[in-house]
Prior knowledge:
The chain is an alpha+beta fold. The chain has helices at 2-20, 82-90, 116-123, 136-146, 154-162, 169-180, 188-197, 219-226, 230-242; strands at 99-100, 107-109, 112-113, 203-206, 211-216, 246-250, 253-259.
Amino acid sequence: MKKVTSILLILAIFLPVLAGCGTFSPVETTTVPTTQAPTKPPATEAPTSVPPTTQEPTTVPPTTEAPTEAPTTAPTESNMSATEARYKKVVTLTRDDCDKDYVLGGYSHWGIRILADDCERIDTESNLRHVVPARSFYRAMALCLSCFSLGNDWTYYAPHILGYTPESRSDFAELVDDLSSFICTENSVPTLIQKFLILETVESTVGDDEIYTFQIADPAACAAELGISEEMLAYIFGMMHDSGGEISFSDGACTIVIKDYH
């Protein structure tokens, strides 16, 4: 009983105090929901797709061929004048090209018998290649003309000199004197030089020390003015060659540079 009275007394004392302090409301604890950060999906490695290699078309530039120049071909016998073709053979002949006369001895070529002293020059040991002297054919024709009056066989040599055979001996006789004036056995080169100086088909220049230059634009026309064949004109050039003359051809024309040693 005393405990109950004491409790009541205590409550009577503290209740007014508690009432003055207001109503006590318990503090609400707001629980903040912990929102878990969204987990990223596992990184799926992007497929490494290699783009198709589209090879760029290689455009080959059109091949522009260089303009083909006209071939510079060395003149052949087919496009040379008859004079040039024969002359080039005259200055390159060797003993192997000749026919050997086993009866009379000596050599011949193109049906022309080479004189004995020229045959000796062919066979001499110092002539290592046994070259035929370029003068040989001119000298052979000159000797034949000089012996015409002795009654030799003119039909043998007239075709070489003229390019044709006259109808008779008397027809040929009318030409012999003129032909012998420059196709001769003595003083041949000085005589030929003087003959060329008066030809209309030859342009002549006289330099120092009696060096002559002859320009022949058309060898065929020159041969016609001389009254001989182009074959014989080539033999004249061969005679000049062996006497120190320089003979050259270009585009059909001929140039001769020679000194008069008389």
